[in-house]
Amino acid sequence: MIMSLYDFIQLSQLEKTSMVWEGKFLSTRLEKEHTVVLYRVFDFFCEVYYDKKRNTVTKLNPFRTGTLLQHFFSYQLN
pTM to 2 decimals? Predict the structure, then answer.
């Protein structure tokens, strides 16, 4: 099954999370209260914001390309 970014956005939070776990892990970056994990899902990317204190996913941010990818590359270079 191939899913478009638009179809992914229409899913519930639980369905989105399940789809992301089936994607390909690419990178991780740290923020103050979150670990942000980057996955490739079908033909798009998704940032997963993981709250370390609450041990839960708080946000999923799907996107195709652009400046959001640069956050991961600049983090790895520093």
Answer: 0.82
